[in-house]
Amino acid sequence: MKIALTVLGDTPESQLDQRFGRAEAFLVADTETKVFTPVKNVSKDLSGGAGIVSAQQLNDLGVAAVITGNVGPNAMNTLKAAGIKIYRGKPASAKTNLEQYLAGGLQEIRESGPSHAGMRNRGGQR
Fold this sequence. Notes:
alpha/beta
């Protein structure tokens, strides 16, 4: 099974990025082979729709779940429509978050956070 994590780097030791659509990058972990693959987030600098594009990107990669901090409503709807489960990660490394997920220690996110949470006041949000 493939699990995507939003990260601030490109290694299993990278810290979890709390943003989904505008995450610095993704780290896709294969739970069978234990291989981590860094993936560039193609939507991190988009002016709009970053969450939707990120969700579509992960769906195209065949992930079954994503571990992140916050997910906006449009991204959540797109992930749910694709059958991708969403889990709230902890402020720790990708490796630690994956271990906690595999042990059943992460909570599934069932409600979205605010839209544009990751824009850091870009695009007119205050």
